[in-house]
Design a protein that fits this description.
- With 514 residues, the chain is α/β, with parallel strands linked by helices.
- 32% of the residues lie in helices and 23% in strands.
- It contains 15 helices and 22 strands.
- Strand 13, helix 8 and strand 14 form a beta-alpha-beta unit.
- Helix 6 crosses helix 12 and helix 7 crosses helix 12.
- It starts with a strand and ends in a 13-residue tail after the last strand.
- About 3% of the residues have low confidence.
- The structure holds xanthosine-5'-monophosphate.
- Xanthosine-5'-monophosphate binds next to loops.
């Protein structure tokens, strides 16, 4: 799909949010590293956005936008570092070494501009999120000042004739309340792009693309029970019907009722051919006596592939392997130094398939962000509770039981997790939380119940808010909520006599405990 809007990434932590905001405005948008943009620029985007980045334009070798950006005859918006480099490249002047302006600030609008349509009139104030160290001391010829802030006499600059704009703040973050409007103005009002990107249109195109790629071939898809692989499977089924076979490897490490739910949804509701490989004994045997988190992951990964391999051979093999790879997994991100040493995140769901499985990949979700996958799931009619599920890791409950995994511990954790999540749902908090789960600690403590001494496990509760799982904050539950969950867990779950709440953010913690 040719993207009408291209974001050139200079390494900002929030570049992905630019693409999301543009897509939310109904316009398809892709991200490319600033130093690998030639092919994408040659496709003729209708608007270009230069992202922020960690460098100063004064650092030696700091990145620059390809000259083609300014010669394409299309609107260009420079954000933060993007504004600085645009300014420098077009004949303005930027000075480094200033005190960093970071956090909330107000801009004061000095002159009307289509970029700020729908915001205040001249002299009105607008809250924004700043994060920069360089300062523009001379704007390039042909530009004028649209808005200032206390520390930036050039907070928004424009050359309306060439449709070049620069903003010193980050319109893509939620802390700039009307930033989404600014990005929408840029792509729709200024670049004149029709807002036709929506999930219905995406679905139709994706179905056609799958049919073109697969032809009469056979496709297998590994279902994990999670949202991504489920949405991929339902989409594939709409496209190619019974040419698709799904394989659900039941590791025995799923949450309560999860396996049954997947089987009934796919076989019953959608009537999608599904091989249910019940392999919990194999996984438990392989994991017996193993405590090291990395070893556990490797054992689970290998056992998964062995079962998947066996089942797909039994099903007669296939020409294609479908994966629920998402856009964040395929974006080549610019490293924190902004240098050319780009890092690619590799997908870890069905990685490392045996060499003899020579299947081509079908990845129908590789252009979508997580929230867009959920929207596509809704478009495909997947039930809301299923689509809105919290993420669940491939290795399942095994990485929520530090130490050795046993059937007994799995049963205790499943029970505890069910109670905790029921309480979260009853309190109406489920959709506010990115991920919540119970962890069973390999620690026994002394307690008292009635007149009896108890000696049982500690259960840790985790709940975080996040936008992408890369960073996270612990969820600030009311004490009364935590007390209620604790009472229920200790009273109802045999094997647990103490409950603690994890208040670590990520970083320095991770979301999972292993
Ligand atoms: P961490 O624990 O690294 O997790 O902060 C970030 C997000 O990734 C999920 N996660 C995994 N997902 N396979 C997966 O499919 C894995 O091996 C895995 N490990 C962590 C985790 O649940 C959180 O959403």
């Amino acid at each position: 799909m040719v993207a009408p809007v291209l974001v050139l990434d200079f390494g900002s932590q929030v570049t992905q949010l630019i693409a999301r905001r543009v897509r939310e405005a109904g316009v398809y948008c892709e991200i490319v590293p600033f130093n690998k943009a030639d092919a994408a620029l040659a496709e003729g985007p209708r608007a270009i956005i230069l992202s922020g980045g960690p460098c100063s334009v004064h650092e030696e070798g700091s990145p620059r936008a390809p000259q083609a950006v300014f010669e394409a005859g299309v609107p260009v918006l420079g954000i933060c570092y993007g504004e600085m480099t645009m300014c420098e490249q077009l004949g303005g002047h930027v000075e480094g070494g200033h005190a960093r302006e970071f956090g909330r600030a107000d801009i004061i609008i000095r002159k009307g501009s289509p970029l700020l349509d729908g915001l205040g009139n001249a002299e009105s104030r607008e809250p924004v999120w700043m994060s920069h160290g360089d300062k523009i001391t001379a704007i390039p010829p042909g530009f004028h000042v649209v808005a200032i802030s206390e520390n930036s006499p050039n907070a928004v600059i424009a050359n309306e004739e060439r449709r070049f704009y620069g903003v010193q703040f980050h319109p893509e973050v939620v802390h700039t309340p009307r930033g989404a409007q600014i990005l929408k103005n840029f792509v729709i009002k200024i670049a004149g792009i029709e807002p036709t990107w929506n999930m219905h249109a995406f679905k139709e195109k994706a179905i056609q693309k799958i049919r073109d790629q697969v032809g009469n071939g056979r496709v297998i898809c590994g279902l994990s029970g999670g949202v991504d692989s489920s949405v991929a499977a339902v989409l594939l089924h709409e496209a190619i019907g019974d040419q698709l076979t799904c394989i659900f490897v039941d590791t025995g490490l799923m949450r309560a009722g999860e396996s049954e739910e997947v089987v009934s949804l796919f076989r019953g509701h959608y009537n999608i051919p599904l091989l249910h490989a019940e392999a919990s004994d194999l996984f438990l045997t392989e994991l017996a006596g193993v405590s090291d988190p990395e070893k556990k992951r490797k054992i689970i990964g290998k056992a998964f592939i062995d079962v998947f391999d066996y089942e797909s051979a039994k099903a007669g093999g296939a020409d294609f392997l479908a994966q629920g790879t998402l856009y964040p997994d395929v974006i080549e991100s610019v490293s924190a130094t902004g240098g050319p040493s780009a890092t690619i995140k590799s997908h870890h769901n069905v990685g490392g398939l045996p060499a003899h499985m020579k299947m081509k990949l079908v990845e129908p979700l590789r252009e979508l962000f997580k929230d867009e996958v959920r929207a596509l799931g809704r478009e495909l009619g997947l039930p809301e509770p299923f689509v809105a599920r919290h993420p669940f890791p491939g290795p399942g409950l095994a990485i929520r039981i530090p130490g050795e995994i046993t059937a007994e511990k799995l049963a205790i954790l499943r029970h505890a997790d069910t109670i905790y999540l029921d309480e979260i749902r009853n309190a109406g908090l489920y959709n506010e939380i990115w991920q919540a789960f119970a962890v069973l600690l390999p620690v026994k403590t002394v307690g008292v119940m009635g007149d009896d001494r108890t000696y049982d496990y500690v259960c840790a509760l985790r709940a975080v808010t996040s936008t992408d799982g890369m960073t996270a904050d612990y969820y600030p539950f009311e004490h009364s909520f935590l007390a209620r969950v604790s009472t229920r867990l200790v009273n109802e779950v045999k094997g647990i006599n103490r409950v603690v709440y994890d208040i670590t953010s990520k970083p320095p913690g991770t979301i999972e405990w292993e």
